[in-house]
Amino acid sequence: MTPRTLLHLALLLALPPLLLGVVNRTKAVLAGRRGPPVLQHYFDLAKLLRKGAVYSRTTSWVFRAGPVVGLAAIATAGLLLSMGGAPAALTFDGDFVLFAYLLGLARFVTALAALDTGSPFEGMGAAREVTFASLAEPALFLCLLVLARATGSLSLGGMLGPALPAAWDHAAPALALAAIGLFVLALAENARIPVDDPNTHLELTMIHEVMVLDHGGPDLAFILYGAAMKLFLFGAILSRIVLGHCEGALASEALLLAGVLGFGVGVGLVESFMARLRMNRVPQLLVGASVLSAFALVLLLR
Amino acid sequence: MILACLAGAIALPALSGLAAAGLARRPALAQGTACALLCAGAALGAGAGAAVLAGARAEAAELGFRLDGVGAVFLVAICAVAAAGAVYGLRYHRQAEARGAAVRVQLFYGLAVAGMVALVAASNAIVFLVGWEVMALANFFLVLTDHDRPEAQRGAFLFLMATHVGTLALFAVFALLRQAAGSFDFAAMAGLPAGGALGTRVFLLALVGFGLKAGLVPFHFWLPPAHAAAPSHVSALMSGVVVKTGIYGLLRVTGLFDGIPPWWGAAVLAAGGASAVIGVALALAQHDLKRLLAFHTVENVGIIALGAGLGLLGRARGEPALVLLGFAGAALHVVNHALFKSLLFLGAGAIQHATGTRELDRLGGLARGMRATAILFAIGAAAIAGLPPLNGFVSEWLVYLGFLRALGRPGGLAFAAVGAPLLALAGGLAAACFAKVLGVVFLGTPRTAEAEGAHEPPGVMLAPMAALAAACAAIGLAPAALVPPLGRAAADWSRLPAHLLAGPAEEAAAGAARVSAVALALLALVAAAWALRRRRLAARPAAPAVETWSCGFSAPTPRIQYTGSSFAELLVARFRWAVPVRREGELPRGPFPATASFRTHVLDPVLDLALVPAALAYRWLSDRARRLNVRRIQLQMLLVLATLVAVLGWGFVWWPIP
Amino acid sequence: MARTADLFFILVVVIDLFLLASSRLGAAIRIVAIQGVLLGALPLLLLEQGHSLGHALVLAVGAAAIKGFLIPWLMFRAIREASIRREMEPLLGFVASMVLGGVGVALAFAFAGGLPLPGGDAHPYLVPTALSTVWSGLLLFVSRKKAVSQVLGFLVLENGVYVFGLLLAGFMPVMVEAGVLLDLFAAVFVMGIVMFHINREFASLDTEKLSALRD
Fold it and tell me: Does A173 reach chain C within 8 Å, measured CB to CB?
């Protein structure tokens, strides 16, 4: 466990709300507003942790366990991720499969907690969420397979490690296509426009928001923090793929931070300039990302 | 010693049914004795299997038995599920209530178990086929337990038809092998060349015959009707281990050949991928709990076939890592699936026992009254969805690792890696399906009066479920211990020297140890987060519970909850090409509320769109052909004579007398 | 130069896949225009020693002008006069078109190396790109309902044949290009006439309505 890995774990715990703040600030600036402070989400989380919670009579232990297990699963997935080229806390061949399935576990328990309320609203959100998540899984695996083939390594630490800058020399088009696919997936998995609108609570636009409608207090804090952490994980992966050219620890750290914040600005830009897709177009978007990543893989396989 | 255990494992279950019949005057004693005999036999069998997996060998060639690593894996699975089902049946299908039906079930259950043990320990084709037929016929009678229900009759008939077509193919397979090898013994058949006409014919026939038993698409059509109609512990046996004997047979037959061409592996991979995706898509559309679980069996058999296909590709291309990872993934998934599928079927039986219905949309809120069942079923559901830290993830991870190793290889082999996204799609859909099942059945509010009155099943029914769940958790948390025995089994199957497989096995074990570490880290983080939540909430006064807000409905009813078919509708619509849905109903006309109805009916693509129309067309043709039936007896004799002359003439042309 | 040419080939294939997914006709026509400009630039990038620069320049400018500007302008006029903006759900479905297109692209890239074609070694992406583009054009042509989309499919098909012709540019210079472009012109001309008549007859460009012609 190198010092850089410990630093990255600390960043994983500390930075996600800042990333959300950057996204919201970008959207506000582009809309001509001043917007909330960049550190707003830290205050929101602290406020929620101070509050109590009201539970519905319909709910059971599943509803109370959902946010807890979800946050734990996302944090465990963070243990597997290598950031900025440094080794991850735990690395082995095939660990990105575990990474994807841990994120799937978080989604599974959140959907169960939503169904536990007995409300049709949450049921609808859960149905949509699991649908789009199932269609996004093959796309995620195809992008990771492109990385695996380009770098010749089977673990996240190897794929995002020192071999990646060298891989850009001979597999640049495929990596660029995979990065685009991963960006689309990041938007889909984190419930961002054009897949879902994180701001509204209207029935037409909701997927993720409606699943967490009934949570309050510390439960909601866990859910929001977990969602921010998931966005941070995707941002770290994309940052390393796009900006992973440097050797040297200090330069890599700086590029990691710049990349993640740039990812936040990018998400904000997309959210400001695109409208949400009609619900039946979202599978087409996800299948399109899969086909693009499959094409990138074919380029590497010939 | 091991052979003695094996003999006990065959004899005791076969006799257990006789005990139930013989002591029928005192039903409780009869059933208890039968269960004890069966469990004793299962324990002996599991012991023999464990000993062989630990490195021992057992052979009695004169009697026709040999237990090697491959058979031992299946033997352990068979014994575990058989014992769990027998204990469960003590209360679920009490002899005191069900009388004759219970005696029949116990008789044929024991015979089926005995047949399966015999077939996985067989060393020649005769013993194999005897065991196979005993198992198939016993299963037929088991499915027909409630023989006055049309559902059971249909399921049993489809089962019988499928199994006998398969057995016919198997007769052909073993006849061809005997012709090539000169004896029925498997040891004599080992090392046959796979390249020529013999290999191709044997492989295709074996794929059909064993595919029919295993339930690979498009041979799966008999599986859901049969498994849904049988009593739940019988369904657990059937889904858990009987279909796996098909996989065992396929592995055994393909393991006999040398010089396997790559298209064998590609064919099994294709069948596996198709089964995995189509099986889970069909499962999503089901509203009967047991039919849904049966379709998931099709999906998991597909995943096992993906692993087996990888192993065959590895043997074809000379890649020991692929052989180990593919075989180990397939074998471990056989065991895992036996464990969690039985757990799920036993849970479905508990639900049916408590509420009297299997329809998802008539249940709901069962977690309140059936807390232990809910927790155990949730463990089974998470395991089948492949979620860490349970056992389903470990075997799928091994198969993924196999695909990844293929990715790194030059040439066409890397294209096999397309199986990994397919497996991911099947996994995601399975998680969606079980989110639906858990949510609709156990969570929310009860939708009908039967669901409200649900009570926890008795401890005798919960105990085997708890044991299976504990086994799932144990394999999920400590998988590294299982890799060396699986490596030995892989060496037995592929007849490769053990040292070639040792390297990949060590790497896989090291990776599996890391998987355990991550699983433990997950549990630790869950505990930490839970503690934090409790501390934060303890500081505040507890607020009273209220109704769910649901956007302010003033008079909410349980019927406004999302139903199972609504939950799955988006995905089922996306998979229209695999899941034919028929809609019936009348929509209300006019501006005022009126009576309306809406029904969807999911068809099985192979059964309802291909086989049934073909059968109807055949019947129509035979009706027409009846017109050709000649009335007068002289003309009939003339037809017979003319046919005879024609056949003889043809024979003279083709085989002239020298 | 070779790297840029490869990049252009990949962009052409990405555009093909995007076309299979798009339902907005305006965006689709613009994308085909971009594809035309990219294909116009290719003769310059594929220029080898010994072939005249002037010839390649003429070819490039001509192709870019016709494929990138003239024909898209004609198409925009057509949709403006028929007042249509969107493609309805095609016969095959957007997802199925994308998946089939992707499978075709994968097969083309996997197996095109085995085809015995001259000069394929210098630019390994050329033949697969041509095959993929032809396949995408065929899919578009066969599965779409609106006549404009079908014309776009035909254009993409011709783009694919054009890419193929680039392979042989060293051996049969002017004839191939002229033939291709003339063919293209004639096809678009005919398509324009057909569209005009369909629109006049039905006040719409839905080719499904053609099946209503009986009597």
Answer: yes
**CB pair distance less than 8 Å for A115 and B365:** no
- In a domain, residue A276? The reply is yes
| Phi, psi angle pair for B25, to nearest 5° | -65, -35
Write down the pTM of the prediction. Answer: 0.92
Is the Cβ pair C110, B415 closer than 8 Å? yes
- Is residue A1 included in any domain, yes or no? no
- Hey, what are A174's tokens? 């495929």
Chain B contact set for A111 (CB, 8 A): 435, 439
- How far is the C-alpha of B184 from the C-alpha of B122, rounded, in Å? 11
All residues of chain C having their beta carbon less than 8 Å from the beta carbon of residue A292 are 14, 17
Q: What is the complex's ipTM, to 2 decimals?
A: 0.95
Domain count, chain A: 1
Q: What residue in C sits closest to B574 (Cα-Cα)?
A: C95
Residue in chain C closest to B414 (alpha carbons) equals C110
Interchain CB distance below 8 Å, C106 and A295: yes
Residue among A283, A292, A299 minimizing CB distance to C17? A292
State whether B577 and C96 contact (CB < 8 Å).
Answer: yes
Q: Concatenate the DSSP letters of all residues of B575-611 into one string.
A: TTTT--EEEEEE---SSS----EEEEEEPPHHIIIII
Q: From first to last of its 215 residues, what are the pLDDT tens digits of chain C?
A: 678 888 999 999 999 999 999 888 888 999 999 998 998 888 787 776 666 777 778 778 877 888 888 888 878 877 777 777 777 778 888 888 999 999 999 999 888 877 777 766 677 888 899 999 999 999 998 888 887 888 888 889 888 888 888 777 665 556 556 666 666 676 677 677 667 777 777 666 666 766 666 65
Q: Within 10 A of C24 (CB to CB), how many other CB atoms are there?
A: 12
Domain-embedded: residue A2: no
Phi then psi dihedrals of residue B584, to 5 deg: -135, 150
Structural domain range at position A269: 7-301
Residue A32 falls inside a structural domain? yes
Quick check: C96 and B574 CB within 8 A? Answer: no
| Interior angle at CA B220, CA B216 and CA B223, nearest 5 | 125
